[in-house]
Design goal:
Chain lengths: ~325, ~325
Amino acid sequence: MLNFTIRRLLLAIPTLLFISLVIFLLLEASPGDPLGDVPLTVPPEVRDRMRAALGLGEPWPIRYVLWLKQFFWVEPLYWFDQAFGTGFSDGMQRIISFQSRSPVFDVIAQRVPQTLTVVGMSYVVGILIAIPIGILSAYKQYSWFDQIGTFVSMIGFSMPTFFTGVVLIIIFGVNLQWFPSVYDTTLQVRDWDSFMAQVRQMVMPVTVLALYNAAQISRFMRSSMLDNLGQDYVRTARAKGLSERVVVLKHVLRNSLIPVVTVIALGLPAVFGGAIITEQVFKVNGLGQLLITAIHGNDIPMVLTLTFIFAILIVVFTLIADILYGVLDPRIRYD
Amino acid sequence: MTDPADKTTTLTAGNAATPAAASPPVAPSPNRSQWGDVWRQFRSHRGAMVALVLFVGIILFVSVGPLIWRMDPTFVDIRARNQGFSLAHPLGTDQLGRDMLARLMAGGQVSIAVGLTAMAIAIFIGSLIGVSAGYFRRLDGPLMRVTELFLALPLLPLLLLMVTLFREPLSQTFGAAFGIFLLIVSAIGATSWMQAARIVRGEVLGLKEREFILAARSIGTPSHRMILRHILPNVMSPIMVAATLGIATAIITESALSFLGLGFPPDFPTWGRLLYDAVDQMVLYPSRVIFPGVLISLTVLCVNYIGDGLRDAMDPRIRGR
């Protein structure tokens, strides 16, 4: 298992390098000009100096390697310095955003909490809804509960989040006035009232994402439970005289959770991607919203870094899913 | 599965059935072909049948509808803007006085066309890579590496990037509408073929060990005929299921792009674009958000149900029970 993990980690490095190169070249091929907003009255030599100041003067291979160095060497050193008060990164240039002229990672660090509270919460809620529904649906296959459950999960799976979000805003934000339709990121939780305000503004985005995730996970849970319920060991467990509760919740559930856990791990990075739309609907200024504004503003370092972080998340969670699968299911052998 | 063995039985059964069906019309003995079986099984899936009917209805609505409701979806009548439901405009008008019903039909044409074309591209690339990886052992390693690489790409951000970066040059070369169509379709197609490739490769690897492949090889069948005649027809069912589900994802992705303001130009309606345009005024005119949204969801729901039904119908372990 350790062997497998090390091999996969080593394989992940060229993959990630290649992905970063693809993203970089894609941005390089773009016709957009980061100096497009600079007035035409600015003389050309000043314009050239501005371009050089943004680091755009060099040919692309040099800029690519420079970015790699900044991402993998300067930034970690900087964070190390911040944590331990050392001065390794003094005088080194961090990745700077074209738009805000501040280090990209500082901006990202500001946005991460919003994305994590909303997206993370919705994922947890989604899993908590999906697993009991999946268990019950499979245990009472073809019952009315199962029929309704599969139908609802099919609907949840088919409705795009931008539509459910807008419908929720119309019903609960506009007509009933229960929840605010715009997420207020300046809100700080200090006392009970501000905590309740935070909860109220989180309800709708979390519901939208949770419904979507729950729909997907419950389908996996149901089919995995169904696979296991027909196995011989279940009959043996029943024949031993174990109560139905123990058979289902202990024997079958544990085995059925194996593939579901990996699906959950695989879905985590995708949630960040899906959250782009939900964040846009509820005006949550998290990572997704940051990406969109960066794309619109031709902010190449920001887009590159953010997309690359998404790619790292995908590679890492795929690896975690594979390892988890091996750990949880001793029948799986990677060597 | 159509092994040669199966084929001969269906052939003889077909021959036997013809005279029987000709003489008395009361007992039409079933001409059992593979697709006939699939259809019979598919019909017993109630959800899929309802979905199929609805889906055909939606297709008729967007394709035949404009022939009956002859109103130009781009005709601006500023004096009739923001109207409610009326006889002149059954679903009202938008903020520029354009007829909503006509716009929904026109938007549906684009959305469904994007879904079908993007799916066709994705399935073509996916089956090409899947079959070559499964059939030619030497290509297997590199092609599967490429597939894994694509799976590790953050797709939605990349799609957004591609669409933003290349919309200008493409719309200049091919015209605004067609350029964007080409861009969106190829972007979605190029980023969604991986699942199909993996499924097809798995199926081909399994097929290659079967006797009829060995038999075909022993009489010297060349590779291209082998693939076209013997491999492809047998991996048709997983490809079809993947294709159906691919339509659903493509439609959703296109509407998501339009919703983020990165899809088609404003005067070119698609369901996602209509929804996006209506969001600004959703407080006053919620129906303009609801109609395109419901149509997107309904189409995707139908397609997903059809995919489910097809998967059940094509699974030989379930079929015939």
